[in-house]
Amino acid sequence: MNARKKLGLALGSGSARGFAHIGILRVLREEGLPIDCIAGTSMGAIVGAVYAAGALPQAEAMLENFDWKNMAGLLDPQIPVSGVFGGRQIEKLLKTLLSDKRIEDFSIPFAAIAADVATGEEVMFTSGDAVKAVRASMSIPGIFTPVPHENRFLVDGGIVTPVPVRAARMLGADVVIAVNLAAEMSKRSYIKPPERDDDERSGFDASDMVNSLRAVETTLPPFLREAIQKGRDFLEKPAQAVEEWFDDKVERGREVLSERATFFSDWVKKDDDDIELPDMFRVIFNSINIMQGYLAEANFAQSPPDILLVPDLAEIRLVDFNKPQECIRKGEEIAREALPQIRAALAG
């Protein structure tokens, strides 16, 4: 009698879109299809780790009851920073789901994918502190601070491997279901193209450059504009500037901490068409949209999955954390459509 083929999942990055992974896992569980291993990147690592740790029902209950207007409580701004948020509150949330478990204690083999921000190397966690591994895998560059680990600084694995098919195979999967959340990202841009007059000049001179730099500076958040000005002062009056810079940063830190709740609560409550992200966030998230779409295709060319699932998430942005049920439903839909293909692959 032939041995049963091992089924592995490669859960891709996609921030809020990653709630779709929950819907896919639900369907596989309901259909009695055993999952033998999971590899995940970023949000895929979060959902995959929670499932492998046996905590998915707890996470689903948390989603049902969570008030997304209070999302600011999960964020901890830091100034000065290598990322806007320190990630300590996210770690606390992960600990409520994963406790102090180590990856090797999970019920099935699991891998979380991160990236070395200095070298660009993929870093795969298959053992060790589960919270640390997941926290590293989800550290979006510029948004969350990198995670120190064995003389490396680790960031979101999506910058090198958005959908970790190869990792799933390394865990022992014979059949790999890959979930790509980046395929439709290009349809939802965060940046509106600038309008150009028909008679606008195509040339570019020194005055254009000066004006452009000034225009860019005006789009920065107030505390960054002031930091730039403080840098100019520093060059002219070093001693005085250092003292003023330190005092200003302390005060700015207090202001950010007091303002973050209002900012993010309003952000979540607004209608999609009314949301205007700060320019820094807009640039970061749109860059991720573009990069991960291309990277996923390149990864699939080298390590093709047996089954590729692409949930219809074109209208879900990376930051739409207040729409978990819609994402879960989309995940369920795509998984049910693929059931005949999955069963055929396992039987073949």
TrEMBL record:
The active site is at S42 (nucleophile), D156 (proton acceptor). Residues 9-169 form the PNPLA domain. A motif (GXSXG) lies at residues 40-44. PROSITE patterns: PNPLA. The keyword Ribosomal protein does not apply. The keyword Hydrolase applies. GO terms for biological process: lipid catabolic process. GO terms for molecular function: hydrolase activity. It comes from the Bacteria. Keywords: Hydrolase, Lipid degradation, Lipid metabolism. A motif (DGA/G) lies at residues 156-158. It holds the Pfam family Patatin. InterPro entries: Acyl_Trfase/lysoPLipase (IPR016035), NTE (IPR050301), PNPLA_dom (IPR002641). PANTHER family: NEUROPATHY TARGET ESTERASE/SWISS CHEESE D.MELANOGASTER, NTE FAMILY PROTEIN RSSA. This is Patatin. It comes from Candidatus Moduliflexus flocculans.
